Known about the structure:
single chain; mainly beta; CATH 2.40.50.180; 5-stranded mixed sheet; 3 helices; globular
Amino acid sequence: MTTDTQANNNQIEQFLTFELAGEAYGVDILKVQEIRGWEAVRIIPNTPSFIKGVLNLRGSVVPIVDLRERFSLEHSEYSQKTVVIVLCVKHRNSTFVMGIVADAVSDVLDIRLEDIKKAPNFGTKIDTRYMRGMHVYKKNMIMLLDVDKLLNPDELESLDSLE
């Protein structure tokens, strides 16, 4: 018989990995609705600069977040490899759809929960609230994101009016 601890150590989750400014990131595959090529978005006034605008996705208005800007990374022009990963995000008791801009999609990885390391604590200067943890894969560090925390409640409230 296995104990609950042993069962938890053997649990596996799948993560979609993608590139952003030369670094690897991952999101829970169960949160991914689809992957699309970059296309022009409708700009919405008075939104934070990292919200690039919205797309009409089969009748739904979907906000598009540029993670490079969200994470204060260097700016890069969008190319043919640039993708939008459409995610289902939970906020309070509801679910909504948003897209994140990534440089390129990499792979889908099976990761054991015990192999996910806690996000390091850098103090108050560096914001790690978006991170679920870290995973080492083939000598590379992959930052696993908690997509439900990519937007804070105030930013979500401003997007509620778009629906």
